[in-house]
Amino acid sequence: MDWKVILDELETGKIRAAEPSGDTWKANIEVKEAILAAFREGKNAEYGGIYEGFVDKNNIPPRMFSVSDGVRMVPGGSSVRRGAFVAKGVIIMPPAYVNIGAYIDEGSMIDSHALVGSCAQIGKNVHLSAGVQIGGVLEPVGLSPVVIEDDCFVGAGAVIVEGILIKRRAVIAPGVTLSKSVPVYDCVNNIILGKGTAIPEGAVVVPGTRPAGSEWASKMGLSMYCPLIVKYRDEGSEASLELENALR
Question: All domains of the chain, ordered by start, with CATH?
Protein backbone atom coordinates (compact mmCIF):
# COMPACT_ATOMS: atom_id res chain seq x y z
CA MET A 1 0.00 0.00 0.00
CA ASP A 2 1.23 3.53 -0.78
CA TRP A 3 2.70 5.37 2.20
CA LYS A 4 0.37 8.35 1.60
CA VAL A 5 -2.68 6.10 1.95
CA ILE A 6 -1.26 4.52 5.09
CA LEU A 7 -0.59 7.90 6.72
CA ASP A 8 -4.14 8.99 5.89
CA GLU A 9 -5.56 5.81 7.40
CA LEU A 10 -3.39 6.19 10.50
CA GLU A 11 -4.86 9.65 11.06
CA THR A 12 -8.42 8.34 10.87
CA GLY A 13 -7.67 5.38 13.14
CA LYS A 14 -8.57 2.90 10.41
CA ILE A 15 -5.20 1.19 10.83
CA ARG A 16 -2.69 1.23 13.68
CA ALA A 17 1.06 0.77 14.09
CA ALA A 18 0.39 -2.06 16.56
CA GLU A 19 -2.57 -4.29 17.42
CA PRO A 20 -3.50 -6.52 20.38
CA SER A 21 -2.39 -10.13 19.92
CA GLY A 22 -3.56 -12.34 22.78
CA ASP A 23 -2.04 -11.03 26.03
CA THR A 24 0.48 -8.85 24.22
CA TRP A 25 0.69 -6.51 21.22
CA LYS A 26 2.16 -7.02 17.77
CA ALA A 27 3.70 -4.37 15.52
CA ASN A 28 2.12 -3.72 12.12
CA ILE A 29 5.22 -4.06 9.95
CA GLU A 30 3.54 -2.65 6.83
CA VAL A 31 2.66 0.54 8.68
CA LYS A 32 6.15 1.05 10.09
CA GLU A 33 7.74 0.39 6.71
CA ALA A 34 5.43 2.97 5.14
CA ILE A 35 6.44 5.58 7.72
CA LEU A 36 10.11 4.93 7.02
CA ALA A 37 9.41 5.20 3.27
CA ALA A 38 7.76 8.59 3.83
CA PHE A 39 10.88 9.84 5.62
CA ARG A 40 13.09 8.62 2.79
CA GLU A 41 11.00 10.29 0.10
CA GLY A 42 10.47 13.55 1.93
CA LYS A 43 12.60 16.63 1.31
CA ASN A 44 13.47 19.25 3.88
CA ALA A 45 11.27 22.30 3.45
CA GLU A 46 10.54 25.55 5.25
CA TYR A 47 7.14 25.79 6.92
CA GLY A 48 6.02 29.40 6.49
CA GLY A 49 3.06 31.17 8.02
CA ILE A 50 2.34 30.04 11.59
CA TYR A 51 5.43 27.79 11.54
CA GLU A 52 7.86 30.46 10.36
CA GLY A 53 11.49 29.42 10.85
CA PHE A 54 10.81 25.68 11.11
CA VAL A 55 12.19 23.08 8.71
CA ASP A 56 10.99 19.46 8.35
CA LYS A 57 10.14 16.87 5.71
CA ASN A 58 7.73 18.43 3.23
CA ASN A 59 5.43 15.37 3.23
CA ILE A 60 5.02 15.08 7.03
CA PRO A 61 3.53 18.41 8.14
CA PRO A 62 1.96 19.03 11.55
CA ARG A 63 -1.73 18.21 11.82
CA MET A 64 -4.32 20.96 12.09
CA PHE A 65 -7.49 20.47 14.16
CA SER A 66 -10.97 21.97 14.05
CA VAL A 67 -13.92 21.90 16.44
CA SER A 68 -15.44 19.04 14.44
CA ASP A 69 -12.49 16.81 15.39
CA GLY A 70 -13.60 16.89 19.03
CA VAL A 71 -9.99 17.38 20.20
CA ARG A 72 -8.99 20.16 22.61
CA MET A 73 -5.56 21.29 21.44
CA VAL A 74 -4.70 24.12 23.84
CA PRO A 75 -2.53 26.92 22.36
CA GLY A 76 1.08 27.20 23.43
CA GLY A 77 3.59 25.19 21.43
CA SER A 78 2.18 21.68 21.04
CA SER A 79 2.40 19.70 17.82
CA VAL A 80 0.79 16.55 16.44
CA ARG A 81 2.63 15.14 13.44
CA ARG A 82 1.07 13.78 10.29
CA GLY A 83 0.11 10.12 10.58
CA ALA A 84 -0.86 10.33 14.26
CA PHE A 85 -4.41 9.52 15.41
CA VAL A 86 -6.07 11.62 18.13
CA ALA A 87 -9.58 10.55 19.13
CA LYS A 88 -12.51 12.69 20.20
CA GLY A 89 -12.36 13.87 23.78
CA VAL A 90 -8.56 13.98 23.95
CA ILE A 91 -6.99 17.03 25.62
CA ILE A 92 -3.45 18.12 24.72
CA MET A 93 -1.90 20.73 27.04
CA PRO A 94 1.03 22.86 25.90
CA PRO A 95 3.76 22.20 25.15
CA ALA A 96 3.37 18.55 24.15
CA TYR A 97 4.42 16.50 21.14
CA VAL A 98 2.72 13.55 19.45
CA ASN A 99 4.89 11.87 16.83
CA ILE A 100 4.03 10.06 13.59
CA GLY A 101 2.17 6.75 13.89
CA ALA A 102 1.05 7.37 17.48
CA TYR A 103 -2.51 6.49 18.54
CA ILE A 104 -4.31 8.29 21.37
CA ASP A 105 -7.75 6.95 22.21
CA GLU A 106 -10.86 8.68 23.57
CA GLY A 107 -10.84 10.67 26.78
CA SER A 108 -7.09 10.69 27.34
CA MET A 109 -5.12 13.65 28.69
CA ILE A 110 -1.67 14.57 27.37
CA ASP A 111 -0.31 17.07 29.87
CA SER A 112 2.38 19.74 29.51
CA HIS A 113 5.89 18.74 28.37
CA ALA A 114 4.71 15.21 27.58
CA LEU A 115 6.03 13.23 24.61
CA VAL A 116 4.12 10.49 22.81
CA GLY A 117 6.76 8.89 20.60
CA SER A 118 6.44 7.45 17.12
CA CYS A 119 3.93 4.56 16.89
CA ALA A 120 3.21 4.61 20.66
CA GLN A 121 -0.30 3.38 21.51
CA ILE A 122 -2.26 5.19 24.23
CA GLY A 123 -5.60 3.73 25.32
CA LYS A 124 -8.88 5.23 26.48
CA ASN A 125 -9.02 7.49 29.55
CA VAL A 126 -5.25 7.47 30.07
CA HIS A 127 -3.65 10.37 31.96
CA LEU A 128 -0.10 11.22 30.94
CA SER A 129 1.01 13.76 33.54
CA ALA A 130 3.42 16.65 33.03
CA GLY A 131 6.83 15.70 31.69
CA VAL A 132 5.99 12.07 30.86
CA GLN A 133 8.17 10.58 28.12
CA ILE A 134 6.67 7.75 26.07
CA GLY A 135 9.41 6.46 23.79
CA GLY A 136 8.95 5.83 20.09
CA VAL A 137 9.93 2.68 18.20
CA LEU A 138 10.24 2.79 14.41
CA GLU A 139 13.14 0.37 13.98
CA PRO A 140 13.46 -2.53 13.94
CA VAL A 141 10.07 -2.65 12.21
CA GLY A 142 9.05 -5.88 13.95
CA LEU A 143 9.44 -4.44 17.44
CA SER A 144 6.21 -3.45 19.18
CA PRO A 145 6.09 0.18 20.37
CA VAL A 146 5.29 1.35 23.89
CA VAL A 147 1.66 0.57 24.68
CA ILE A 148 -0.35 2.12 27.53
CA GLU A 149 -3.70 0.33 27.78
CA ASP A 150 -7.04 1.78 28.92
CA ASP A 151 -7.58 3.61 32.22
CA CYS A 152 -3.91 3.92 33.18
CA PHE A 153 -2.41 6.81 35.15
CA VAL A 154 1.20 7.83 34.49
CA GLY A 155 2.70 10.25 37.02
CA ALA A 156 4.80 13.32 36.32
CA GLY A 157 8.25 12.76 34.87
CA ALA A 158 7.82 9.02 34.29
CA VAL A 159 9.81 7.55 31.39
CA ILE A 160 8.51 4.48 29.50
CA VAL A 161 10.62 3.27 26.58
CA GLU A 162 11.79 0.27 24.52
CA GLY A 163 8.38 -1.18 23.73
CA ILE A 164 7.21 -1.67 27.32
CA LEU A 165 3.56 -2.71 27.67
CA ILE A 166 1.50 -1.23 30.52
CA LYS A 167 -1.68 -3.27 31.04
CA ARG A 168 -5.02 -1.63 31.76
CA ARG A 169 -5.68 0.25 35.01
CA ALA A 170 -2.02 0.31 36.05
CA VAL A 171 -0.72 3.30 38.01
CA ILE A 172 2.83 4.52 37.38
CA ALA A 173 4.14 6.87 40.06
CA PRO A 174 6.05 10.09 39.28
CA GLY A 175 9.68 9.52 38.37
CA VAL A 176 9.38 5.82 37.49
CA THR A 177 11.55 4.63 34.58
CA LEU A 178 10.53 1.48 32.72
CA SER A 179 12.71 -0.08 30.05
CA LYS A 180 13.70 -3.56 28.94
CA SER A 181 17.01 -3.29 30.78
CA VAL A 182 15.52 -2.65 34.23
CA PRO A 183 13.83 -5.52 36.15
CA VAL A 184 10.60 -4.84 38.04
CA TYR A 185 10.19 -6.19 41.57
CA ASP A 186 6.67 -7.32 42.49
CA CYS A 187 6.54 -6.88 46.27
CA VAL A 188 2.98 -8.23 46.42
CA ASN A 189 3.69 -11.61 44.79
CA ASN A 190 7.36 -11.77 45.84
CA ILE A 191 8.69 -12.21 42.30
CA ILE A 192 10.98 -10.40 39.91
CA LEU A 193 9.36 -9.74 36.55
CA GLY A 194 11.58 -10.64 33.61
CA LYS A 195 13.20 -7.73 31.83
CA GLY A 196 10.73 -6.32 29.33
CA THR A 197 7.76 -8.15 30.90
CA ALA A 198 4.47 -6.24 30.74
CA ILE A 199 3.40 -4.30 33.81
CA PRO A 200 0.39 -6.32 35.05
CA GLU A 201 -3.17 -5.07 35.07
CA GLY A 202 -3.93 -2.78 38.03
CA ALA A 203 -0.35 -2.71 39.30
CA VAL A 204 0.78 0.33 41.29
CA VAL A 205 4.44 0.97 40.45
CA VAL A 206 6.71 3.30 42.44
CA PRO A 207 10.44 4.12 42.31
CA GLY A 208 12.68 1.93 44.46
CA THR A 209 16.28 0.79 44.94
CA ARG A 210 18.18 -2.48 45.27
CA PRO A 211 21.77 -3.30 46.29
CA ALA A 212 24.28 -2.55 43.53
CA GLY A 213 25.57 -6.14 43.65
CA SER A 214 29.33 -6.22 44.16
CA GLU A 215 30.99 -6.58 47.56
CA TRP A 216 32.72 -3.23 47.12
CA ALA A 217 29.44 -1.51 46.23
CA SER A 218 27.84 -3.06 49.30
CA LYS A 219 30.63 -1.74 51.54
CA MET A 220 30.18 1.71 50.00
CA GLY A 221 26.44 1.57 50.64
CA LEU A 222 25.65 1.92 46.94
CA SER A 223 22.32 0.95 45.42
CA MET A 224 20.68 0.84 41.98
CA TYR A 225 17.32 2.14 40.82
CA CYS A 226 14.49 -0.33 40.30
CA PRO A 227 10.70 -0.05 39.95
CA LEU A 228 8.57 -1.69 42.64
CA ILE A 229 5.00 -2.99 42.42
CA VAL A 230 3.71 -2.20 45.90
CA LYS A 231 0.02 -3.07 45.48
CA TYR A 232 -2.75 -3.85 42.98
CA ARG A 233 -5.88 -1.81 42.43
CA ASP A 234 -9.29 -3.36 42.92
CA GLU A 235 -12.21 -2.58 40.64
CA GLY A 236 -13.55 0.13 42.90
CA SER A 237 -10.31 1.99 43.58
CA GLU A 238 -9.40 5.39 42.18
CA ALA A 239 -5.98 5.89 40.60
CA SER A 240 -4.80 9.05 42.37
CA LEU A 241 -5.89 7.81 45.80
CA GLU A 242 -4.17 4.46 45.25
CA LEU A 243 -0.99 6.26 44.28
CA GLU A 244 -1.14 8.64 47.22
CA ASN A 245 -1.62 5.79 49.69
CA ALA A 246 1.19 3.74 48.08
CA LEU A 247 3.67 6.61 48.39
CA ARG A 248 2.92 7.39 52.04
Answer: 3-166 (2.160.10.10), 185-248 (no CATH)
What phi and psi values does residue 168 have, to the nearest 5 degrees?
A: -55, 145
Strands 184-186 and 165-166, bridge-based pairing: unpaired
Amino acid letter, 44? N
pLDDT, tens digit (0-9, with 9 covering 90-100), for 170-219: 999 999 999 998 899 999 999 999 877 899 999 999 999 998 888 898 88
Q: How far apart are CA 135 and CA 75, in angstroms?
A: 24
216 CA to centre of own chain: 37
Cis bond before residue 95 (omega within 30° of 0): yes
Residue 240: in which H helix or E strand, if any? helix 239-247
d(CA 49, CA 186): 52
Provide the pLDDT for residue 209. 94
> How does pLDDT run across 39-51, given as a tens digit for each residue?
999 999 998 888 8
- Burial track 128-155 (b if 16+ CB lie within 10 A, e otherwise): bbebbbbbbbbeebeebbbbbbbbbbbb
Burial 35-66 (b: 16+ CB within 10 A, else e): beebeeeeeeeeeeeeeeeeebbeebebbeee
Sorted by sequence, the CB contacts under 8 Å of residue 83 that are 6+ apart come out as 6, 7, 10, 11, 35, 38, 60, 100, 101
